[in-house]
């Protein structure tokens, strides 16, 4: 999925050139946006699967591993977003 325009999304993490963001007000299921260069994937938080879009295979593997490790943190940010509260930063993958 290519982003036709630059939209400022609250960044919650950034690692290996991958920006992880979440919208303040979004549709279900709980998900986050992973952007690398010109490509973007929407990732389901609960099952760490791609809902829409794509990333290079090597980057996608990193994102999905990070999502599994930080599932609870991501769900907490999703709840904060639903309440229109500031999101918490999540440790990047190292």
Q: Could you describe the 3D structure shown?
A:
The chain has 94 residues and is α+β, with helices and mostly antiparallel strands. It has one domain (11-82). The protein contains 2 helices and 5 strands; from the N terminus they run βββββαα. It has helices spanning 57-69, 71-82, and strands spanning 11-15, 18-21, 31-36, 39-44, 49-53. It starts with 10 loop residues before the first strand and ends in a 12-residue tail after the last helix. The model is unreliable at 2-7 (pLDDT under 50).
Question: How much strand?
Answer: 25-35%
Secondary-structure-based class equals alpha+beta
What is the total number of structural domains? 1
Annotation, overall tally of beta strands: 5
Order of helices and strands: EEEEEHH
Can you give the helix content as a percent range? 25-40%
Low confidence ranges: 2-7
What's the gyration radius in Å?
A: 12 Å
The DSSP helix count reads 2
The largest sheet is: 5 strands, antiparallel
Query: Shape, please?
Result: globular
Overall mean pLDDT stands at 90
Order of strands in the sheet with most strands: 1-2-3-4-5
Question: Which keywords apply here?
Answer:
alpha+beta, globular, 94 residues, 5-stranded antiparallel β-sheet, 5 strands
């Amino acid at each position: 999925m290519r982003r036709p325009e630059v939209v400022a999304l609250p960044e919650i993490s950034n690692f290996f050139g991958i920006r992880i963001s979440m919208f303040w007000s979004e549709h279900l299921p709980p998900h986050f946006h992973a952007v690398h260069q010109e490509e973007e994937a929407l990732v389901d938080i609960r099952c760490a699967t791609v809902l829409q879009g794509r990333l290079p295979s090597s980057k996608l593997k990193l994102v999905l591993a990070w999502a599994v490790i930080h599932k609870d943190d991501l769900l907490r940010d999703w709840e904060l977003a639903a309440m229109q509260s500031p999101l918490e930063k999540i440790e990047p993958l190292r």
